[in-house]
């Protein structure tokens, strides 16, 4: 009986949220009822692709847990991180996308071509370990998300099912279908916005004020949490995934050889890429903003200041935000995990395959790229086993953050150098402003990486 009620609420929550969205949409439609505006909306949607899915994958269950903790522990005080990290994240991902678009090769392949191999091997090895740890944590979070709705389902059975489904999706579907799946799945992020808007009596004046004016106490706990947010938004796996997906899109468009992909990049291609990337990063950071606001308005106010997982955040929200917010939060955990796990596994495989010169690409069939798909299988299986052996998911995320903190600055240095090199990028080289911002972002991540490591040794 309990499961039936839960099922009814699960089925009804998206419909209720959709109904509210449709009410707003009707008003918009009344104002913009011409075919011209509808056509523009369709063109915009078709322009979105790798940037949208990369931004959405950034808000994985571990990211949700980080943002939830930021809101629970400090209320609205860290809301400024959402607008602050948005341009940083977008500039870096735009550089990565432009490298892939102009060179016709993934990030690792370009590093291999222009820099010492030992640098590449260290980066890809650390990336593989960090991503694998993150996969394990995300698989466990997805299973916990289902158990919020159906408590009688076995944890390890759910972890195994999600791991198997993720592998099947990457191995046995064509890239064209796979890309469409990821693109539509990105819309699951809207559930967090709906969940926050379902909370009554939000103090929007305070929320907007705290989003504009930075508040830093320089305590060990706050510095570590800020570092965690930076590591969650500017992550190495997103660099590799973004670049490789630009190449996959070129191949899907018929440019199947490196020679064809290295032909003159048009202004329209770059314009569409930038629109895609900045849209995806905006959605990612908008969701961060609403998650922090939701937990700040409810959990912080109620004195619940320690959130250790996305599932715990959803459970803690229920008494204060109601069933609708709770269910939408739970559905978001499952959906974002299904989006993030393939991206984590895929980015590690792209990096390793390009590093060692293996055949690679989601457009290839299993037999055509055994090593590429083998890395995806290995990283997912290890992620599953992390849960089987009962490793602490929070410690897993901390170690993942340490690895990311170590390799992010190194890879960012290479990204800024490559995208600022006219021999590599031609006329699409960084201008002085973008190059300068790139080095500033790199410096911020160096500080974040050092702070992450130091915080582990402080009592």
Could you describe the 3D structure shown?
With 459 residues, the protein is mainly α. It has a single domain, classed as Amino acid/polyamine transporter I (Up-down Bundle), CATH 1.20.1740.10. Helix content is 80%, strand content 0%. The chain is built from 21 helices and no strands.
The CATH architecture can be given as Up-down Bundle
* Estimated share of beta-strand residues: under 5%
Oligomer status: single chain
pLDDT averaged over residues: 82
The number of distinct structural domains comes to: 1
Largest sheet: none
CATH class: Mainly Alpha
For the secondary structure, the number of strands is: 0
**CATH topology-level name:** Amino acid/polyamine transporter I
Percentage of residues in helical conformation? over 70%
Radius of gyration: 21 Å
Contiguous helical run count:
21
- Poorly predicted regions: 10-22
